[in-house]
Amino acid sequence: MTDILRVQGLRKAFGGVVVANGIDFSLSTGAMHCLIGPNGAGKSSFFRLLLGEHAPDAGTIIFDGSDITNLRSFQRIRRGISVKFQVPGIFKALSVRQNLEVAFQDHLNGQSLNTKIHEMLDFTDLHAEETTPAGNLSHGQQQWLEIAMAVGVEPKLLLLDEPTAGMSPDETRKTGEMLHDLNARGITILAVEHDMAFVEQIARRVTVLHFGSIFVEGTIAEIIDHPGVQEIYLGTADV
Ligand SMILES: Nc1ncnc2c1ncn2[C@@H]1O[C@H](COP(=O)(O)OP(=O)(O)OP(=O)(O)O)[C@@H](O)[C@H]1O
To answer: TM spans, by residue (predicted)?
Structure first.
Protein backbone atom coordinates (compact mmCIF):
# COMPACT_ATOMS: atom_id res chain seq x y z
CA MET A 1 0.00 0.00 0.00
CA THR A 2 1.31 3.48 -0.83
CA ASP A 3 1.67 6.29 1.68
CA ILE A 4 -0.61 9.25 1.15
CA LEU A 5 1.46 11.26 3.61
CA ARG A 6 5.16 11.15 4.44
CA VAL A 7 6.63 13.60 6.92
CA GLN A 8 10.37 13.71 7.51
CA GLY A 9 12.33 15.65 10.12
CA LEU A 10 9.53 18.18 10.68
CA ARG A 11 10.61 20.83 13.12
CA LYS A 12 9.01 24.00 14.42
CA ALA A 13 9.77 26.20 17.39
CA PHE A 14 8.09 29.36 18.65
CA GLY A 15 10.92 31.08 20.49
CA GLY A 16 11.99 28.50 23.05
CA VAL A 17 8.87 26.35 22.67
CA VAL A 18 9.57 23.42 20.36
CA VAL A 19 6.18 22.21 19.06
CA ALA A 20 7.61 19.76 16.48
CA ASN A 21 10.95 18.22 17.26
CA GLY A 22 11.94 16.32 14.14
CA ILE A 23 8.72 14.42 13.43
CA ASP A 24 8.98 11.40 11.09
CA PHE A 25 5.52 10.09 10.28
CA SER A 26 3.88 8.10 7.48
CA LEU A 27 0.24 7.41 6.77
CA SER A 28 -0.91 4.66 4.39
CA THR A 29 -3.50 5.51 1.78
CA GLY A 30 -6.90 4.46 3.15
CA ALA A 31 -5.78 4.47 6.79
CA MET A 32 -7.93 5.31 9.83
CA HIS A 33 -5.30 6.53 12.23
CA CYS A 34 -5.39 8.33 15.57
CA LEU A 35 -2.86 10.69 17.03
CA ILE A 36 -2.86 10.85 20.80
CA GLY A 37 -0.64 12.46 23.43
CA PRO A 38 -0.86 14.50 26.61
CA ASN A 39 -1.93 18.15 26.61
CA GLY A 40 0.68 20.32 24.94
CA ALA A 41 2.33 17.38 23.12
CA GLY A 42 2.07 19.27 19.83
CA LYS A 43 -0.87 17.49 18.16
CA SER A 44 -2.71 20.60 16.98
CA SER A 45 0.58 22.20 15.93
CA PHE A 46 1.34 19.12 13.83
CA PHE A 47 -2.01 19.56 12.05
CA ARG A 48 -1.29 23.25 11.49
CA LEU A 49 2.07 22.31 9.96
CA LEU A 50 0.39 19.74 7.70
CA LEU A 51 -2.16 22.31 6.61
CA GLY A 52 0.43 25.04 6.00
CA GLU A 53 -0.82 27.35 8.75
CA HIS A 54 2.65 27.17 10.33
CA ALA A 55 5.81 27.20 8.19
CA PRO A 56 8.26 24.55 9.43
CA ASP A 57 11.82 25.47 10.44
CA ALA A 58 13.02 22.21 8.86
CA GLY A 59 11.71 19.00 7.33
CA THR A 60 9.58 17.93 4.40
CA ILE A 61 5.92 17.00 3.88
CA ILE A 62 5.11 14.74 0.94
CA PHE A 63 1.41 14.43 0.18
CA ASP A 64 0.07 12.12 -2.51
CA GLY A 65 3.52 11.86 -4.07
CA SER A 66 4.29 15.62 -4.18
CA ASP A 67 6.36 17.83 -1.93
CA ILE A 68 3.90 20.30 -0.41
CA THR A 69 6.25 21.68 2.27
CA ASN A 70 6.26 25.16 0.75
CA LEU A 71 2.69 25.28 -0.51
CA ARG A 72 0.15 27.66 1.01
CA SER A 73 -2.90 26.33 2.85
CA PHE A 74 -5.36 26.89 0.01
CA GLN A 75 -3.04 25.01 -2.37
CA ARG A 76 -2.88 22.05 0.03
CA ILE A 77 -6.66 22.07 0.37
CA ARG A 78 -6.95 22.10 -3.42
CA ARG A 79 -4.71 19.03 -3.58
CA GLY A 80 -7.00 17.13 -1.25
CA ILE A 81 -6.28 17.87 2.41
CA SER A 82 -9.31 18.89 4.45
CA VAL A 83 -9.45 19.70 8.13
CA LYS A 84 -11.93 20.08 10.94
CA PHE A 85 -10.40 21.86 13.89
CA GLN A 86 -11.75 21.65 17.42
CA VAL A 87 -13.22 25.17 17.41
CA PRO A 88 -16.46 25.03 15.38
CA GLY A 89 -16.01 26.58 11.95
CA ILE A 90 -19.67 26.83 11.00
CA PHE A 91 -21.63 30.04 10.41
CA LYS A 92 -24.15 29.96 13.22
CA ALA A 93 -26.52 32.57 11.79
CA LEU A 94 -26.74 30.78 8.43
CA SER A 95 -28.99 27.78 7.82
CA VAL A 96 -27.62 24.26 7.50
CA ARG A 97 -28.13 24.44 3.74
CA GLN A 98 -26.41 27.84 3.46
CA ASN A 99 -23.40 26.51 5.39
CA LEU A 100 -23.09 23.64 2.92
CA GLU A 101 -23.47 26.05 -0.01
CA VAL A 102 -20.67 28.24 1.34
CA ALA A 103 -18.41 25.20 1.77
CA PHE A 104 -18.99 23.80 -1.72
CA GLN A 105 -19.60 26.88 -3.89
CA ASP A 106 -16.01 27.10 -5.17
CA HIS A 107 -16.14 23.48 -6.34
CA LEU A 108 -19.71 22.91 -7.51
CA ASN A 109 -22.66 24.78 -8.94
CA GLY A 110 -26.20 24.27 -10.25
CA GLN A 111 -27.56 20.74 -10.06
CA SER A 112 -24.27 19.18 -8.92
CA LEU A 113 -24.21 21.57 -5.94
CA ASN A 114 -27.80 20.64 -5.09
CA THR A 115 -27.06 16.90 -5.41
CA LYS A 116 -24.02 17.21 -3.13
CA ILE A 117 -26.01 19.16 -0.54
CA HIS A 118 -28.67 16.44 -0.49
CA GLU A 119 -26.02 13.75 -0.22
CA MET A 120 -24.50 15.55 2.78
CA LEU A 121 -27.91 16.13 4.42
CA ASP A 122 -28.44 12.35 4.14
CA PHE A 123 -24.99 11.62 5.47
CA THR A 124 -25.46 13.84 8.53
CA ASP A 125 -29.12 12.96 9.00
CA LEU A 126 -29.88 16.71 8.90
CA HIS A 127 -32.59 16.77 6.21
CA ALA A 128 -35.20 17.96 8.73
CA GLU A 129 -32.87 20.79 9.75
CA GLU A 130 -32.07 22.08 6.26
CA THR A 131 -33.44 25.58 6.96
CA THR A 132 -32.54 25.68 10.68
CA PRO A 133 -29.88 28.22 11.67
CA ALA A 134 -26.73 26.19 12.38
CA GLY A 135 -26.44 27.83 15.81
CA ASN A 136 -29.72 26.17 16.85
CA LEU A 137 -28.43 22.64 16.18
CA SER A 138 -27.27 20.38 19.00
CA HIS A 139 -23.53 20.30 19.67
CA GLY A 140 -23.21 16.93 17.92
CA GLN A 141 -25.19 18.09 14.88
CA GLN A 142 -22.96 21.18 14.59
CA GLN A 143 -19.89 18.93 14.56
CA TRP A 144 -21.47 16.67 11.91
CA LEU A 145 -22.36 19.68 9.77
CA GLU A 146 -18.76 20.78 9.92
CA ILE A 147 -17.53 17.29 9.01
CA ALA A 148 -19.92 17.37 6.03
CA MET A 149 -18.52 20.78 5.03
CA ALA A 150 -15.01 19.31 5.18
CA VAL A 151 -15.75 16.15 3.19
CA GLY A 152 -18.25 17.41 0.61
CA VAL A 153 -15.28 18.63 -1.43
CA GLU A 154 -14.10 14.99 -1.58
CA PRO A 155 -10.70 15.27 0.05
CA LYS A 156 -8.13 12.48 -0.07
CA LEU A 157 -7.07 13.12 3.52
CA LEU A 158 -9.32 14.33 6.34
CA LEU A 159 -7.68 15.72 9.47
CA LEU A 160 -9.93 15.86 12.54
CA ASP A 161 -8.89 17.60 15.75
CA GLU A 162 -10.86 16.06 18.64
CA PRO A 163 -14.04 15.46 16.62
CA THR A 164 -15.99 14.12 19.61
CA ALA A 165 -15.06 16.76 22.19
CA GLY A 166 -18.17 17.66 24.20
CA MET A 167 -20.34 14.95 22.59
CA SER A 168 -22.68 12.56 24.39
CA PRO A 169 -21.81 8.83 24.19
CA ASP A 170 -24.53 8.37 21.54
CA GLU A 171 -23.23 11.25 19.44
CA THR A 172 -19.68 9.90 19.81
CA ARG A 173 -20.72 6.44 18.61
CA LYS A 174 -22.59 7.93 15.66
CA THR A 175 -19.55 10.04 14.75
CA GLY A 176 -17.43 6.88 14.71
CA GLU A 177 -19.91 5.25 12.32
CA MET A 178 -19.80 8.33 10.07
CA LEU A 179 -16.01 8.21 9.95
CA HIS A 180 -16.08 4.50 9.05
CA ASP A 181 -18.51 5.36 6.26
CA LEU A 182 -16.20 8.12 4.94
CA ASN A 183 -13.21 5.80 5.15
CA ALA A 184 -15.10 3.15 3.18
CA ARG A 185 -15.69 5.81 0.50
CA GLY A 186 -11.91 6.13 0.15
CA ILE A 187 -11.03 9.04 2.45
CA THR A 188 -7.91 8.55 4.56
CA ILE A 189 -8.54 9.76 8.11
CA LEU A 190 -6.13 11.09 10.72
CA ALA A 191 -7.79 12.13 13.99
CA VAL A 192 -6.46 13.68 17.16
CA GLU A 193 -8.49 12.20 19.98
CA HIS A 194 -8.43 11.94 23.77
CA ASP A 195 -11.35 9.52 24.21
CA MET A 196 -9.71 6.08 24.11
CA ALA A 197 -13.04 4.28 23.61
CA PHE A 198 -13.51 6.33 20.46
CA VAL A 199 -9.91 5.66 19.39
CA GLU A 200 -10.69 1.98 19.78
CA GLN A 201 -13.85 2.37 17.69
CA ILE A 202 -12.15 4.01 14.73
CA ALA A 203 -8.38 3.54 14.63
CA ARG A 204 -6.46 0.65 13.17
CA ARG A 205 -3.18 2.19 14.28
CA VAL A 206 -2.29 4.84 16.83
CA THR A 207 0.66 7.23 17.09
CA VAL A 208 1.63 8.80 20.40
CA LEU A 209 3.14 12.27 20.29
CA HIS A 210 5.11 13.58 23.26
CA PHE A 211 7.09 16.83 23.49
CA GLY A 212 6.74 17.34 19.73
CA SER A 213 8.21 13.93 18.83
CA ILE A 214 6.76 10.56 17.92
CA PHE A 215 7.00 8.50 21.09
CA VAL A 216 5.61 5.21 19.77
CA GLU A 217 3.27 3.86 17.11
CA GLY A 218 1.28 0.62 17.11
CA THR A 219 -2.08 -1.06 17.28
CA ILE A 220 -4.51 0.15 19.94
CA ALA A 221 -3.73 -2.91 22.09
CA GLU A 222 0.02 -2.28 21.84
CA ILE A 223 -0.45 1.37 22.79
CA ILE A 224 -2.73 0.66 25.76
CA ASP A 225 -0.31 -1.93 27.13
CA HIS A 226 2.81 0.14 26.51
CA PRO A 227 4.31 1.03 29.92
CA GLY A 228 5.99 4.18 28.54
CA VAL A 229 2.66 5.50 27.25
CA GLN A 230 1.04 5.00 30.63
CA GLU A 231 3.94 6.91 32.18
CA ILE A 232 3.72 9.91 29.87
CA TYR A 233 0.01 10.25 30.62
CA LEU A 234 0.83 10.13 34.32
CA GLY A 235 3.60 12.66 33.70
CA THR A 236 6.41 10.48 35.03
CA ALA A 237 8.20 9.59 31.79
CA ASP A 238 11.68 10.97 31.26
CA VAL A 239 11.77 11.43 27.47
N1 LIG B 1 1.76 29.96 18.10
C2 LIG B 1 2.34 29.50 19.22
N3 LIG B 1 3.25 30.24 19.89
C4 LIG B 1 3.84 29.77 21.01
N5 LIG B 1 3.61 28.57 21.57
C6 LIG B 1 2.70 27.80 20.94
C7 LIG B 1 2.03 28.19 19.75
N8 LIG B 1 1.21 27.20 19.36
C9 LIG B 1 1.35 26.22 20.28
N10 LIG B 1 2.24 26.58 21.22
C11 LIG B 1 2.67 25.76 22.37
O12 LIG B 1 3.13 24.55 21.82
C13 LIG B 1 2.79 23.44 22.67
C14 LIG B 1 2.01 22.44 21.89
O15 LIG B 1 0.71 22.95 21.64
P16 LIG B 1 -0.41 22.14 20.83
O17 LIG B 1 -1.68 22.95 20.91
O18 LIG B 1 0.10 21.79 19.49
O19 LIG B 1 -0.53 20.84 21.74
P20 LIG B 1 -1.69 19.74 21.76
O21 LIG B 1 -0.99 18.43 21.85
O22 LIG B 1 -2.61 19.94 20.62
O23 LIG B 1 -2.40 20.06 23.12
P24 LIG B 1 -3.96 19.83 23.59
O25 LIG B 1 -4.16 18.36 23.71
O26 LIG B 1 -4.01 20.53 24.91
O27 LIG B 1 -4.83 20.48 22.54
C28 LIG B 1 2.03 24.04 23.85
O29 LIG B 1 2.96 24.23 24.90
C30 LIG B 1 1.55 25.37 23.32
O31 LIG B 1 1.39 26.33 24.34
So the answer is: none
